[in-house]
Amino acid sequence: MTTPAPKKMEPRPAATILLLRDDQHGPEVFMLQRTKGAAFLPGAYVFPGGALDPSDGDERAARRVRGLSDAEASAKLGLASGGLAYWIAAARECFEEAGILLAVDAAGAPVAPARVAALEHLREPMNAGTAKFADLLEAEDLYIPAQEIVYFSHWITAAGRPRRFNTRFFVARAPRDQAGAHDDSETVHSFWISPREALARQERGEIEIIFPTRVSLSDLARVTTSAAAVDHARSLGDIQVEAAVWALDHEGSARMFRRADPPYHEIHWSDPEESGKTCFVIQPGVPKRLDARVTRLTAPNSGVMTGPGTNCYLVGDGEALAVIDPGPPIDEHVKRIAELGAGRIRWILVTHTHVDHSPAAALLKTVTGAQVLGRPRPAHGNQDASFAPDRVLEHGERLAIPGATLRAIHTPGHASNHLCYLLEETRMLFTGDQVMQGSTVVINPPDGNMLAYLAALEALLHEGAVILAPGHGYLVGAPEKEIRRLIAHRLAREAKITASLARLGGATLEELVPAVYDDVHPRIHPVAARSLTAHLEKLTAEGTVHAAAGRYALVKSPPAR
Ligand SMILES: [Zn+2]
Questions:
Q1: Is residue 273 part of a domain?
Q2: What whole-number distance in Å separates Cα of residue 374 and Cα of residue 394?
């Protein structure tokens, strides 16, 4: 008998609005306390907001919006359509819950407070669903100024609660002279408060504020005016969703994860149903099923350079499998890979021939008879002398496995023979040591090459990867963002090198290390010297730096004419 998969509860679309005004000390935000009897977040202090109403998406409401089309709104939210309903819901909830009417008349002028007061009586029937926001806007000939309501953040509550929401947060400046007030039904108390003060009260245990509210308040605490807060929200580019998710440790205890936590993307990838039952701990020797096509088996070689151990991946869903990076020559590990493959391993692929990635290939070949694929070992670096590929893979070559197609991408830099593999069906990119989770890749000349490494990273941006499967650590999400971050990190170090050379006039490697790596422990300096050498080689190759008799100096720029 099979147990049916747990049914994922779809979160309800919702909108929340952070209303801001200024007092002499800075911005204040409007907060409400939810009634203790509420089904969702009883007693907590929140911003006005709630689930989208079917009427938020209708034509009549859309005609009452100024300055934003549904296509533009949807693009901002990353939706195919229906985005405008979130702006309408934000304005509607703002009136229902806070009594603040975010609207302008036909001439674009704000609504006078007396007129808003005269409409107060509509809040209750609107809340009860017997009156519609569009009725009010039509009757009063008012419009929602959508340009003044700015998309700010995106939160999805974790599974497991009786209610789930997929909420878009917006910021807007409250119209002048509208003070707002709670409705005394869903909410029982309200105030305008500085973000700092709200956080302080929460610290003291006087009020309850949940995580997304707290993060929003911390963001707002950094700005000095409500206008600056709105500008900040406008300047945000691609807003990433924060979808809290549960997973278990190796003893079965549940823990919640946020986007900033290293296992976050792996949990979402390997548990799309959000059952909360996936294990987030990387345990060497214990296979981890990442999806229908890929299982990871981490080798028992954890250490400073290898993190939890080298990741070996088994790829394919049929009668024949490929192994990527069998890892170090540990008999127990090779035995486990063979057991997991259960007679189906036909190909052994390696990303590169460093001793923690490829030496098990020869052993695994002996056990399975599989074909070994990769690029020959280079002359320099800590290479696996035993590596002998049956087939040399060229850039762009494809390997068809039942259920999966792997394409080799030559990515020299960390090692000159380094390959990444793109699983084309799911766009999972096996990165080897080109991208590691949790640590910086070592670029060690002469086989390591910084110029090639950065060019290879740039090229990976165009592969459309949706998830990275590194040689060490967890799956890495948001690949484009992560790769751009890695490039920026290296270029920031490079800028520090040229600034140090400009200041010192000229310097030896030994003199440069403490100047350029003043942010890392001196214990790390010998390793840092290798990276510095790689940077200096890149700058020399580019004509920015010249080297003579062990001294490096900036090449003087030609005099301006
Ligand atoms: Zn390596």
A1: no
A2: 9
Query: In this structure, are 140 and 219 located in the same domain?
Result: yes
Cα–ligand 1 centroid distance for 431 (angstroms): 11
314 alpha carbon – ligand 1 mean position (Å): 19
Query: How far, in Å, is the centroid of ligand 1 from the Cα of 374?
Result: 14
Angle value at C-alpha 533, between 503 and 531, nearest 5 degrees: 100
pLDDT (0 to 100) of residue 7: 57
Residues 456 and 491 in one domain: no
Asked if 159 and 190 sit in the same domain, the reply is yes
Bridge partners of 432, per DSSP, are: 470
- Ligand 1 centroid – CA 273 distance (Å): 34
Give me ligand 1 centre to Cα 346, in Å: 24
CA of 414 to the centre of ligand 1 (A): 7
**What local confidence, expressed as pLDDT, does residue 558 receive?**
52
User: What does each C-alpha distance from 184 to 35, 97, 123, 180, 190 come to in angstroms?
Assistant: 9, 9, 11, 12, 10
Residue 257 falls within a domain, yes or no?
Answer: no
Residue 238, pLDDT score: 84
Please provide the average confidence, as pLDDT, over all residues in the chain: 93
- Ligand 1 centroid to Cα of residue 235, in Å, is 38
Spans of the chain, pLDDT less than 50: 1-5, 559-561
Ligand 1 centroid to Cα of residue 354, in Å, is 5
Query: What pLDDT was estimated at residue 127?
Result: 84
User: Is residue 408 located within the same domain as residue 511?
Assistant: no
Answer whether residue 200 is part of any domain.
yes
Q: If you measure from the C-alpha of residue 498 to the centroid of ligand 1, how many angstroms do you get, rounded to a whole number?
A: 28
Please give the distance, rounded to the nearest whole angstrom, from the Cα atom of residue 283 to the centre of ligand 1: 21
* CATH number reported for the structural domain that contains residue 305 in this entry: 3.60.15.10
pLDDT at residue 71, as a whole number: 97
- Supply the range of the domain harboring residue 210: 12-242
For the chain, give the number of residues.
561
* Residue at which a domain ends, from 453, 477, 501: 477
Tell me what pLDDT residue 438 has.
84
pLDDT digits (tens, 9 = 90+) for 64-83: 999 999 999 999 999 999 99
Q: Look up the pTM and report it.
A: 0.89
What is the distance in A from the centroid of ligand 1 to the CA of 433? 5
Whether residue 191 is found in the same domain as residue 324: no
C-alpha 415 to ligand 1 mean position (Å): 7
Query: Are both 448 and 514 inside the same structural domain?
Result: no
Residue 247 inside a domain? The answer is no
Q: How far is the CA of 95 from the centre of ligand 1 (A)?
A: 58
Structural domain total, the chain: 3
Q: What is the pLDDT of residue 560?
A: 47
Buried b vs exposed e over 348-381: b needs ≥16 C-beta within 10 Å? bbbbbbbbbbbbbbbbbbeebebbbbbbebbeeb
CA–CA distances in Å: residue 284 to residues 91, 221, 298, 411, 471: 52, 43, 5, 27, 13
